[in-house]
Structures are given as structure tokens and as C-alpha cells.
Design brief:
The structure holds 3 protein chains of 3 kinds. By secondary structure, chain B is α+β, with helices and mostly antiparallel strands. Chain B folds into 3 domains: 292 residues, no CATH class; 113 residues, no CATH class; 59 residues, Arc Repressor Mutant, subunit A (Orthogonal Bundle), CATH 1.10.10. Chain B is built from 15 helices and 18 strands. Chain C is mainly alpha-helical. Classes of the chains: A alpha/beta, B alpha+beta, C mainly alpha. Chains A and C meet through helix 9, helix 10, helix 11, helix 12 and helix 13 of A and helix 1, helix 2 and strand 1 of C.
Chain lengths: 486, 485, 98
């Protein structure tokens, strides 16, 4: 008999709606695990057990009254701490927002409430979503449940770790350059970044506006689909919302005849041999199941890091200008307002955030704009065009999600550039606005998870999830990390 | 030594929309502090802007009215700087693809009519308001105004004097009132203006261009005129003193002190503004298609200049009267409504530009604001033209009562016994008394001094409270004087 | 393009980020390395008349409907300093009445 925390979200929702299990029992099972694990893993920045129980009781009350609370009834969903939940802190793992409590719900949070989900705490991230390891969190890093000396990845490390360790069956993260998919790969769970515009960004504390997307974590492809269906779709409050509903993600299907492109640029020398072996085998399995595998080339993708590390910091330097100590957040002590601005921001932003603000300010500044921001956007347009041309020949792209399995805490913190270069496999999708998903495709000899990365054309979530489900069926099932020492 | 004056104007107009530019907060004057705010216009983390379509249509209507070239594709850009009243640390504005470019404004001065070229028109959001509390060494910030839609209009430096600058502002104000897109009231802050002034001085075979001075913090059209005049004089004087050395600094900003009627140097910011403009990623571009242009065009009514000309042609009004009537659209509308209700045009124009205008001024309102129904005015004017009431009586005794009540003019005249007296028999007694009381004037008249009758007429009119028909009075007096009464 | 500590301080001023002199040296080194990598974009050959990408959509706007606002208390709740009506900030030195 499985414990409640071992069940998938799909199974949990069914159990709660059919009254096999109460929402309160589901909540207690996860609270128990969360409170026991969090000290070691540091997945949560904020978790209010009484508030969770209150929500669960309300779900049970409504079911008893004959109401249908929705497709996520009673399912705990952990929320990355850069999403606004009314009345709960939203710190973005930064000192500058440590005291901030939003007076409104993000669109995706409103959707979750409507669908009967139980909002289950705020998870750790790299400060303002800038990073690939949560080591940039002002409140300490999140550790990988498979090896507590290693990083859970980032920036949505807390959400990935929470799902991997069974602290919550579902979690929301955000992805700008790989911040959902990379931690998903390093923690052995499913994580995906939707098509740009499919999920409303209203209430997501912005990092890079033209790249950010909110996306789901789950232990299975179906669970990730369930969560995406719940939160995606049109929102008039986000002008970049595509205004279309989420397509059907759970229709059964196979990969027969599906053309899967394998970009040669993704299999260069930076790819660790153990990762390469697992990913190549997974792709071969897809071929055996009927997909047509062919090599493709995306020559411009080698410039992805350079383009990303101009565009994202530039937009971020502007998005973070609002943190000036006037209306919310921390305020530094200044004798006049200018001094207050500089002290507030100079003291309360962490080093990576400062680095990126400076980089972005530089790239936009007079005399440099054309050479940096202007150029980067032009290359980005060309990359997008190149991707669109590629998708005329294939239906999906496949590669590894990360060049290596989880790295040790502290291994890359001295060299920001090295950290940036580890994003090389994930930045292309957000630059082109296309959806991409990572699912576990095995473990290294050391027992560390490895992720298979699939990319689809814009609004190609149906084919993306279909292929992911087919792959999942052929790959080893979800493996639990070792239990923490009591 | 000759000099040419160049004045360019940068004007910001607040648009009369119901809601703000990028969020649904109401646009209202005088609301309690920080009550018209939401996550978007407060710049809370996670908020996003969505443009107000009607604000854009209003701006397009204005661009159409000024003959601008409207861009097929327009977008927003971020203007990045730090200030306490700027919630996001950037203002959403437009940089390289504004709504419109080119166009012109017709400006009327004593010297004649001049066409002032425009450079560009774009739309942006307003910022909040800082109030300085020097006693406590603090500033207080109110964000009610943050996010209000603004149109910015930049002209070429085609204006050549302070008078032209004033006339330009008045022409713009009339235009936007006609279009009903802005109240354009400088005192209320919904029209702001920064003139840029410099001189091209031809001296000793060369041309020296004085620095372009931008003047800020002007709060009335009159002060704009005064400041521009002061600047022109100051720059001339500075050149006379320093010669070509004035060109060391190509531009500067000055403030205006209206108590002393002087511009003054403002402390330069440490670094020149580097606004780091880049395309606003949160708002996709907008295509201004034929349908939208037609919609904007449909919102352009007959404009002041055209209406002026039509009033002259159609109603036979003098250029002066036509201009006075058309300066405010509501007044011109009122005039046409009165004419439609039966008022003869020329007298109606006269009533509106003199009597009604005076009352409006006294009561600190507009002609329309007096609340006198056009049909009532028409009835009054006809009474006078038909000779039923003396013009003066109508103005002094009837009109004020009409403004305070809702009476029918004819009924009022009747009730108060103010009807004009045309019956010579009723005038004769008073006329005789007039001659008796003014023997000297009577004698003068009989001696051949025609003008002496004036005193006698005055006596009769006063005695009869202005109600007597002055022509009949004159006839009666002349007859009596001839008869030697 | 080399980024030196003086350049770092200039950019930091633009971004209102207080940077100590020791910090400036370290940041200059980091940024210089990063920009060095980014400079590889100069060599990218782009097709003729390459447009700068910026957007995925077009023509999004909203009707001019006024909606409810935040209650004043909610608006002020997170303020570091307020007096029940206004947000308060230390004095602004170069005064520009807006």
C-alpha cells in the first residue's frame, strides 16, 4: 500500500474526489514529510501548516456538501517564491523583498484555487530567478535529494527538490533560460517550459520579460500535464498572453512516424559521457518505438548563451529598477533619496543579481546599445527563424537537458561564466519562444538523475506531451531518492 | 547685428479617458491620496501593463486633426531613470516608432496666420506626484496620477516670438477641446509646456547660435509667454556681453520665477540623462490599420479654423465675432443651437460675446456653464429684434433673472411690465417734463444745436426706466420742441 | 571592449547600485570576462536586412473601462515609511516638481 505522499497527483485528485481519501489526510501526509525533510533539503522558504490545513478542510467540506472542487481537488502544489500569493510572502529569495507580502494573487494562483488545489508553501530559488543552482538564494541553497552535497539545480531548485522528495506531488516554477527543465533533470522529475504566451505572467515577479514562462513540475508526464492544463490559457491582464487555451495534453498516442531531430550542436565535447550514453539510448528507444530519428543542425544555437546573457540581463536591469525602497521591500538608510536608492539596492541585492544588473545596464547604455542589445535581438530573430525552418523538416528535437549530472555545491560559484555555460542546452527554447520538456531518462553510476530534453514548435504542446509520455513508458520509472537520515 | 528667434514647444496633454493608460484605475481629479492605485500603476512586483485602446484612438484623432503622418506600426519603449514618483523605475513611452510624425498647427497672431510644423506626437504614461515637506526633510508621494495617459507633441522651432508661443498654446488648447480629448488646462496640470528657446545671431559676417534653453515649471499660458520673452532678451544681452563664448554649452535647462518674471539656472544633474531606451517587451506592437484610422478620423469634428470661416460665410459674422465664438467649442455649439431655435445670427453673436461672456466671467464659468437654454436666449433676442423690449432693458433687467430662474422671457417681460413702450401718448407727459427740467438744453436745441437733444432723451429714458422706444422718444421731443412746448 | 573599475562605477551609478572600490575591481574582472564571451556575437553573419526580434504577438489592448482599485491600506501596507496617506521618502535634493 503506497503512502499518500507516494501517489501521483492524478491519483490523489481522484482519491479525494471519490472520497477514498480526505484532503486533510493528503495535506497531513505531505506536511509531515515536508517538515521532516526541509532542514536537509531546504526546498521551502515558507510553509504555513495551519493555512494548508484550512484549505484542505475547505475542500473536504465542499465535497461533503456535494460540490465538485475541481480537477486538482486536495492536491498540494508547491509554489516558487517569485509568484504572488495574496497574504503570503514573496521574497524571490532576496533580502530586498524579504518583508514583501503581495496584496494580490497571480493569475496562475487564481486558477489553482478555482481548480481545488491546496497551495502548499513557497519554494526556494536563485535570487530573482538568476542562477542555475539556488546557490544565489539569499537564504541558503537547496540540496539535491539524491545527494545532499550537490545542487538541486536552479533557479527553480526548491520546486524540483520538493517534488522529487515527495514533499508535494506538484510544483510551479518559472523558466527563463532553463530554470524549470535543468532542476527537473538534476532532480529526476518532469519539468517543462510552455510556449511563450501560453501561461499568463501576471503575478510572476519578472526577471526577463520576453523569456519568462511559468511551468509545471511533476513526477510523471501526466501529472505535469494536469498542472499545465489547470494554470494555462488566456488572461487579459498580460498583453503577451497568446489568448489561446491549453491544447489537449493527455490524449493517448504513440510516436510512430514522428520525426525527431537530433541537433548536432547539442552533442559537442562539453557533454559528459555518462549523460550522453543515457540520452542517446533514450533517443534510440524512441526510434525503436517507431519514431524517425535524424540528425539536424542549428548552427546559430552555439550563440545562444551570448544572446541570452545580453537579452536577459538587459530586461532584468530594467525590471529590477522598481526595487528602490519607496513603496515596498527593504529600504536602506540614506540622508537623501538618491543615497537611499543606492544603499538599498547596493546592500540588499546579492552579487549575481548585481552582476546581471550591471551587465544589462551596460548593454543598454548609450554607445553600446547597437553593439550589444541591438545585435543580440537580431541574432535572436535569426535563431527563431532557423528554428522555424528546422520544424518544417522534423516534429520535435531531442537532446540532453544538461551537460552533466548535478554538480557539487560550491563547485561553480567562483566562476560566473562557467555557471552560465552550463545553460547551453536549455537557452535556445526560450529565445525562440518554443515549448520544451525534460523527463528523467536514467541515472549515472553515482545514482544521479539525467534528463532527456524534448523541444516542440510554438503551441506544439500536444505532440510534446505525446512523445514525452511514450518515452516515459519505455524509460525506467520514477525513482525515489534515498530517505533522509532521521 | 541681426537676430532670428527660434522657439520650439514640447507640450504634454493629459487625455480625458475613463481609465489609466495601462490599467483600469479611474482617471479622476481631486481624489483622496493614493486611492486610485492598483498593482500595475503602483509598480508592484509581478504586475503588467495593457494599453488603453481609447487613449490611442484619441491620440490618433489628434494626429489626424493636425495632418500628421500616422505610423502603420507603432510600439512602446521603456525610458529608464530613477525618481520617487516613477513607480517602475522606467516610464512606458515611445521612442523610435511614435504614433505620428510631421503635421502642423495653424497659429493666429496680429501679424497674421502662420503654420507651425510639428516633429512628432507620441503617447506615454504620467508619473506620480511629489510634495516636498522641507520642514521634516521628507517628500510625500501620491501615485493617483501615475499611469494617466499623456500625449506629447513636439514642434519644430518655427515660432519666432513670445506672442506666437502663446498663440500656439491657445491653438492647441482649442483643438483638443474641439476633439474632446483633453481639458488642456495648465492650472490643473493637464497641459504642461516646455519651450525651447535660442537665437541665431548674424554678426560680423558669421552666425552665432546661442545655447538652446529649455524652460521648465511653467504653470500658465501667460507665464509661458513671459518666460519666452525674458529668455529672448536675456540671450541677446548675454551675447552682447560674451560674444561667441556663449556657445560653450550647447543646451541647458532653466526654471522660471513668476514673482520676479525671470528664468534662472537649474543645477545640472551629474550625468547627462542616459535613458537606455529599449522596446517595451511586455506590450506587443500595434498596427494602425485603415479601419482604426477611419475610426480616428470620425472623431474629428469641424475644426476651429473651418468653423470660423463657416460662421463668417453662413451667418455673415465678422471675423472678430466668428473668432470669439469659436475659441471654445461649447460656445460655438451654443451659438448654433440658439440660431437653430430661431435667434437671428448677428444679434445672437453679439449677445453671446458681450452680455453672456460678461456674466460667465463674473460667475467664473463658461457661456454654456451659465445654464441658459439656447431656446430661451433665442426668445430674448427675438423680443429685442421685434421691438418688444429695449435692448438695454433686456440686458439689465431681463437677462439676470433668466439666468437665475427658468422663466420664459416673454412671460417675464410681461410679468414685470418691462415691455417697450412705443405709444407716443404715454411718452408725451414725461417728454414735457424733460423739456421743463432742462430749459437750457431745450433752448440750445431750438437754437440749432442738434446734439442738445441727448440730455432730454437721457431724462426721458431714465424716468421711463429705459422702457421707452428711443426712436419714438426722439420724435416726440422734436415735435414738442418745434411746437414750443 | 575592456571593462575597468571606473566603467563599473559609472554603470553602477546609472543603475543606482552602491559599489565599494574593492567590489568594483572584482566586478570589472567578472564583467570583462563575460563581455569577452558575448563579443563573439560580432562575428555572426546575419542575413540581409535582419530585423531585430522582439515580439511574438501583435495588437493587444483593452477597452477604456474603469475598474476598482486597491484599498488605500493595501496600497500602503508594504511601504517602509508612510503616514496613512502618502508614501514618505527622504528629501529629494535636486527638486523638480512633477
Amino acid at each position: 500500500m503506497s503512502e499518500l505522499w507516494q501517489l501521483s497527483a492524478t491519483a490523489l485528485a481522484a482519491a479525494v474526489r471519490s472520497r477514498e481519501a480526505s484532503a486533510v489526510d493528503v495535506a497531513e501526509a505531505h506536511l509531515d514529510r515536508a517538515l521532516r525533510w526541509n532542514d536537509q533539503v531546504e526546498a521551502f522558504l515558507h510553509l504555513e501548516p495551519d493555512e494548508v490545513r484550512r484549505q484542505a478542510r475547505e475542500i473536504d467540506r465542499r465535497i461533503a456538501a456535494g460540490e465538485d472542487p475541481g480537477p486538482l481537488a486536495g492536491v498540494p502544489v508547491a509554489i516558487k517564491d517569485n509568484l504572488c500569493v495574496r497574504g503570503q510572502p514573496a521574497t524571490c529569495a532576496s533580502r530586498i523583498l524579504e518583508p514583501f507580502v503581495p496584496p494580490y494573487d497571480a493569475h496562475v494562483i487564481e486558477r489553482l484555487r478555482v481548480k481545488g488545489a491546496v497551495l502548499f508553501g513557497k519554494t526556494n530559488l536563485d535570487e530573482f530567478a538568476m542562477g542555475s543552482s539556488t546557490e544565489n538564494s539569499a537564504f541558503g541553497p537547496t540540496r539535491n535529494p539524491f545527494d545532499l552535497e550537490r545542487t538541486a539545480g536552479g533557479s527553480s531548485g526548491g520546486s524540483a527538490a520538493a517534488v522529487a522528495a515527495g514533499l508535494a506531488p506538484l510544483a510551479l516554477g518559472s523558466d527563463t533560460g532553463g530554470s524549470i527543465r535543468q532542476p527537473a533533470a538534476l532532480c529526476g522529475v518532469v519539468g517543462m517550459k510552455p510556449t511563450y504566451g501560453l501561461v499568463s505572467r501576471y503575478g510572476l515577479i519578472a526577471f526577463a520579460s520576453s523569456l519568462d514562462q511559468i511551468g509545471p513540475f511533476g513526477r510523471t508526464v501526466d501529472d505535469a500535464a494536469l498542472l499545465l492544463e489547470a494554470v494555462g490559457g488566456a488572461d487579459a491582464r498580460d498583453a503577451t498572453s497568446a489568448g489561446v487555451p491549453v491544447p489537449d495534453l493527455r490524449r493517448p498516442g504513440d510516436v510512430k512516424g514522428l520525426r525527431i531531430g537530433v541537433p548536432r550542436e547539442c552533442f559537442g565535447e562539453g557533454l559528459a559521457p555518462d549523460v550522453r550514453a543515457l540520452v542517446e539510448r533514450a533517443i534510440k528507444d524512441l526510434g525503436k518505438a517507431g519514431a524517425r530519428i535524424e540528425e539536424v543542425s542549428l548552427p546559430l544555437s552555439v550563440h545562444g548563451i551570448a544572446v541570452y546573457y545580453i537579452v536577459a540581463p538587459s530586461e532584468a536591469s530594467s525590471n529590477l529598477a522598481r526595487y528602490d525602497g519607496v513603496r515596498y521591500g527593504l529600504r536602506g538608510d540614506g540622508k537623501d533619496v538618491e543615497e537611499m536608492f543606492s544603499l538599498t539596492r547596493g546592500e540588499a541585492f546579492g552579487p549575481e543579481v548585481k552582476r546581471r544588473i550591471l551587465l544589462g545596464t551596460f548593454a543598454l547604455s548609450s554607445g553600446y546599445y547597437e553593439a550589444y542589445y541591438g545585435r543580440a535581438q537580431r541574432v535572436r530573430a535569426a535563431m527563431r527563424h532557423e528554428m522555424e525552418e528546422c520544424f518544417k523538416k522534423v516534429d520535435l528535437l531531442a537532446s540532453a537537458t544538461t551537460p552533466t549530472a548535478a554538480f557539487a555545491l560550491g563547485e561553480k560559484t567562483d566562476d560566473p561564466l562557467a555557471m552560465y555555460l552550463s545553460d547551453v542546452l536549455t537557452v535556445t527554447a526560450p529565445l525562440c519562444g518554443v515549448p520544451a520538456l525534460s523527463l528523467p531518462c536514467g541515472r549515472t553510476a553515482a545514482g544521479l538523475p539525467v534528463g532527456l530534453h524534448l523541444t516542440a514548435p510554438r503551441f506544439g504542446e500536444s505532440v510534446l506531451f505525446r512523445a514525452a509520455r511514450a518515452a516515459e513508458q519505455m524509460l525506467p520509472p520514477f525513482a525515489w531518492p534515498p530517505e533522509p537520515p532521521r | 547685428m541681426k537676430h532670428k528667434v527660434l522657439v520650439g514647444m514640447e507640450v504634454h496633454l493629459q487625455l480625458r479617458t475613463h481609465s489609466k493608460m495601462f490599467c483600469g484605475c479611474p482617471v479622476k481629479f481631486g481624489a483622496p491620496v493614493n486611492t486610485l492605485v492598483c498593482p500595475v500603476c503602483l509598480g508592484l512586483p509581478g504586475s503588467l501593463p495593457v494599453p488603453n485602446r481609447d487613449a490611442l484612438t484619441m491620440a490618433l484623432a489628434l494626429a489626424t486633426a493636425m495632418g500628421c503622418e500616422i505610423n502603420n506600426l507603432t510600439k512602446f519603449d521603456r525610458k529608464n531613470y530613477f525618481y520617487p514618483d516613477l513607480p517602475k523605475g522606467y516610464q512606458i513611452s515611445q521612442y523610435d516608432r511614435p504614433l505620428a510624425t510631421g503635421g502642423a498647427v495653424e497659429v493666429v497672431t496680429e501679424a497674421g496666420v502662420k503654420s507651425v510644423r510639428l516633429r512628432r506626437l507620441h503617447i506615454e504614461e504620467d508619473v506620480g506626484k511629489n510634495l516636498h515637506d522641507d520642514a521634516r526633510g521628507l517628500s510625500r508621494v501620491d501615485f493617483n496620477r501615475a499611469g494617466t495617459p499623456l500625449v506629447e507633441i513636439v514642434s519644430e522651432p518655427d515660432l519666432a516670438s513670445a506672442e506666437e508661443a502663446r498663440a500656439y498654446l491657445n491653438a492647441l488648447r482649442a483643438l483638443v477641446q474641439y476633439l474632446d480629448v483633453s481639458d488642456a488646462n495648465m492650472q490643473e496640470g493637464n497641459l504642461r509646456c516646455e519651450p525651447n528657446v535660442n537665437l541665431h545671431i548674424e554678426d560680423a559676417g558669421g552666425v552665432v547660435k546661442t545655447p538652446i534653453i529649455e524652460v521648465k515649471n511653467l504653470n500658465s499660458v501667460r507665464n509661458v509667454e513671459r518666460a519666452v520673452k525674458f529668455e529672448i532678451d536675456r540671450q541677446l544681452a548675454e551675447y552682447r556681453e560674451k560674444g561667441a563664448a556663449v556657445t560653450k554649452q550647447p543646451r541647458a535647462t532653466r526654471g522660471y520665477d513668476d514673482q520676479r518674471d525671470q528664468t534662472f539656472e537649474m543645477r545640472e544633474k551629474e550625468e547627462a540623462h542616459d535613458y537606455r531606451y529599449f522596446p517595451e517587451p511586455d506590450i506587443p506592437p500595434l498596427s494602425i490599420d485603415a479601419k482604426w484610422r477611419a475610426e480616428a478620423k470620425a472623431r474629428v469634428p469641424e475644426l476651429p479654423a473651418a468653423r470660423r470661416r463657416r460662421f463668417s460665410d453662413q451667418f455673415g459674422l465678422s471675423a472678430y465675432d466668428a473668432d470669439a465664438l469659436t475659441r471654445e467649442r461649447a460656445t460655438a455649439d451654443y451659438f448654433e443651437q440658439a440660431v437653430a431655435a430661431g435667434a437671428p445670427p448677428k444679434p445672437a453673436a453679439n449677445w453671446i460675446t458681450s452680455d453672456l461672456a460678461r456674466h460667465a466671467n463674473d460667475r467664473k464659468t463658461s457661456v454654456k456653464g451659465l445654464g441658459l437654454a439656447p431656446a430661451r436666449l433665442a426668445a430674448l433676442v427675438r423680443l429685442v429684434e421685434d421691438g418688444r423690449v429695449a435692448r438695454q432693458v433686456a440686458s439689465k433687467d431681463v437677462l439676470p433673472r433668466l439666468l437665475d430662474g427658468d422663466d420664459d422671457p416673454e412671460a417675464l417681460v410681461s410679468k414685470l411690465g418691462l415691455a417697450r413702450i412705443d405709444d407716443a401718448s404715454r411718452i408725451e407727459d414725461v417728454a414735457r417734463r424733460a423739456i421743463a427740467a432742462n430749459a437750457r438744453a431745450a433752448a440750445d436745441y431750438r437754437a440749432g444745436k442738434e446734439k442738445a437733444i441727448g440730455a432730454l432723451m437721457g431724462f426721458v429714458m431714465r424716468e421711463m426706466q429705459g422702457k421707452a422706444n428711443s426712436d419714438v422718444v426722439q420724435d416726440v421731443l422734436k415735435r414738442l420742441l418745434r411746437e414750443g412746448a | 571592449m575592456a571593462i575597468d573599475p571606473a566603467e563599473v562605477l559609472r554603470i553602477a551609478r546609472l543603475a543606482r547600485l552602491k559599489v565599494e572600490p574593492e567590489e568594483a575591481s572584482r566586478l570589472a574582472k567578472d564583467l570583462d570576462r563575460i563581455v569577452g564571451h558575448i563579443d563573439s556575437l560580432r562575428a555572426v553573419k546575419l542575413p540581409e536586412g535582419a530585423e531585430a526580434l522582439t515580439y511574438f504577438g501583435k495588437d493587444v489592448h483593452r477597452p477604456d473601462d474603469a475598474r476598482g482599485c486597491l484599498a488605500k491600506d493595501d496600497a500602503l501596507r508594504n511601504a517602509p515609511m508612510e503616514d496613512g496617506d502618502f508614501f514618505l521618502v527622504p528629501k529629494i535634493v535636486d527638486k523638480e516638481e512633477s
